Write the C-alpha cells for this entry.
Amino acid sequence: MRLLANENFPLTSVKILEKAGFDIIYTGLDFKGILDNEVIDIAIKEERIIITFDRDYGELIFKKGLRPKAGVIYLRWDSFLPDEPGKYLIKLFKTKEIKYNSRLTVITETNIRQRRY
C-alpha cells in the first residue's frame, strides 16, 4: 500500500508505518510547505492514499473536482498521542474490509464513514 502523509500527520506515526512495511512519503520532510492541491497532484501521479488531519480535502475533492484515485483518509480526532494514528491505521489496513479507491474516508473516535467520488 502506497501512502502520502500530509504535514499535519505525526512523524512518529509515519515512522511506525514505514517500519511496518508501508511505502510512505511524508510531505513534512519531502515537500515541506506545499499546498493541499499539490499534495493531491503527487497522490494522483504516484497513486498514493493521502492520510491527513486536514478537513480541506473534502472541499478540494467535492467542490474543486480534484480526485486522487487511491483515496483520502481524513482522521478527525480531537486529541491523540503521536504514535496512535500509525498504530490505528496498521490495524485498519490489516482488516482489508474497507476499500479506499475513489473515496474520502472519514475516521472519528467512534466511527468510519466513506463518501465515493
User: Anything to note?
Assistant: The first helix runs from residue 11 to 19. The chain has five helices and six strands. The chain has one domain: 2-116. The chain has a mean pLDDT of 96.
